[in-house]
Write a structure and sequence with these properties.
Elements: E1 9-13, E2 19-24, E3 31-36, E4 42-46, E5 51-58, E6 64-71, E7 74-81, E8 86-94, E9 96-103, E10 110-116
Antiparallel strand pairs: 1-2, 2-3, 3-4, 5-6, 6-7, 7-8, 9-10
């Protein structure tokens, strides 16, 4: 897999150790590359309808991947299956810089982490 030094890559190792998922942080990137460790075979899966992958994590059964992505100005967590099917899980925020999903060990709960860059700043001078 060719990489660009200026880009940031998000990756995760499947819990069963069979493959690695890699996503490029380039603007409008919506491809996840799966690399089988036993054969070095690669396969691309496209997240349809979403852009700018900024996190990914395998489910505990290694059959799907939870991704933080953008759709317009909204940040979403989506579930990507190994055939390219995309299921939106939750909208993580508007204008949010980043979001990611953490899966519970029993695969029954999902914690969503988000970062928001909206806020106020005050500068006081000569007081």
């Amino acid at each position: 897999m060719a990489t660009q030094p200026q880009d940031i890559y998000y990756w995760d190792l499947a819990p069963d150790g069979s493959q690695i998922a890699v996503a490029d942080s380039s603007e409008n990137s919506n491809d996840v590359t799966l690399i089988k460790l036993s054969s070095k075979e690669t396969r691309k899966i496209t997240i349809k309808g979403y852009d700018n992958i900024h996190s990914l994590r395998f489910s505990n059964d290694s059959q799907s991947i939870y991704c933080g992505v953008l759709k317009g100005y909204d940040t979403w967590i989506v579930r990507l299956d190994r055939y390219g099917g995309t299921l939106p899980i939750t909208q993580a925020g508007r204008f949010s810089a980043m979001s990611s999903a953490l899966i519970s060990p029993d695969d029954l709960h999902l914690a969503v982490r988000g970062t928001n860059v909206d806020g106020n700043a005050w500068l006081l001078e000569d007081f």
